Amino acid sequence: MPMIHGPLPTDLTRDTGSVEEATDLAGLLSVLADPTRLAILQHLRGGEHRVGELSEHLGLAQSTVSQHLGLLRDAGLISTHTHGRARVSCLEHEDLLTSVLVTARALLASASAAAPDAEHTP
């Protein structure tokens, strides 16, 4: 049975602004969608780190970690500063980022629990 509804108060006939906003949000979510970048963010939740430390923690080449840090920095999720002779990275907006990660985990758990078991589907 098709769902029928009239225009809702928030429905607009020409809503190009929502596409632009969705594009910006999709860009940020694509930065967050990489497992390596999520692991870096998790490590930075524990405090600032040098590239070498992150490389050691994650078992990745420093050049790889540096590339991911650059993307996170460009997205405004981290900042980098010098501490003595070392450059260190730290989280920006830690409380908001933590909320996003906690919410994403809860959504994943909820969606996984609601999904039909793959073995029982025809």
TrEMBL record:
Signal peptide: none
Organism: Actinomyces respiraculi
The protein, known as: Winged helix-turn-helix transcriptional regulator
Matching Pfam families: HTH_5 (PF01022)
NCBIfam families: HTH_metalloreg (NF033788)
Keywords from the named record: DNA-binding, Transcription, Transcription regulation
Domain HTH arsR-type: 17-112
Source taxon at top rank: Bacteria
InterPro entries in the cross-refs: ArsR-like_HTH, HTH_ArsR_DNA-bd_dom, HTH_MetalResp_TranReg, WH-like_DNA-bd_sf, WH_DNA-bd_sf
Molecular function GO terms recorded: DNA binding; DNA-binding transcription factor activity
